[in-house]
Amino acid sequence: MYALLYRWRLVRGAESEFKQAWSDMTVSIRSQCGSFGSRLHRCDDGTWVAYAVWPDRESRQRCMPDNPSAAAVMSTAVLERFEPLRLTVVTDPDLRSADTVDRSSVEHQGTLDGAEKSLPLAVEGSQGL
Predict the structure, then answer these.
(1) Using CA atoms, how far apart are residues 126 and 5, in angstroms rounded to an integer?
(2) CATH number of 2-114
(3) Which of 5, 44, 77, 79 could form a disulfide with 18 if both were Cys (CB 3.0 to 4.6 A apart)?
(4) What is the residue-wise DSSP string for 20-63?
(5) Backbone angles phi, psi at 53, to 5 degrees
(6) Tens of pLDDT, residues 37-92
């Protein structure tokens, strides 16, 4: 498995729109590209962080989701972008090991193995994200 950790500082007042666009984009990415979803978090320092999980690096690189309205809202809401961290998942008890993940058990609106509903994932390099 492959993961990306994104971090931004958002424009004040654009948080709700960003969260909705992030959710819309995750649905698009999951259905169009086969991602395992992501989580969106607000940090104590006011920045926002998202953790996105993919079957592998190649799946992420091939992904070109078609959701220009969500991408535009997200891009407009971002005041500052930090370089994403690229991660190789070594083990994750909630998602099983990277060698045993069954992509067919990923639901369109949920996460693998019945975990909490995930929030969407950004498109690295797309629309300024």
Answers:
(1) 16
(2) 3.30.70.100
(3) 77
(4) HHHHHHHHHHHHHH----EEEEE-TTS-EEEEEEES-HHHHHH-
(5) -115, 135
(6) 999 999 999 999 999 999 999 999 999 989 999 999 999 999 999 999 999 888 87
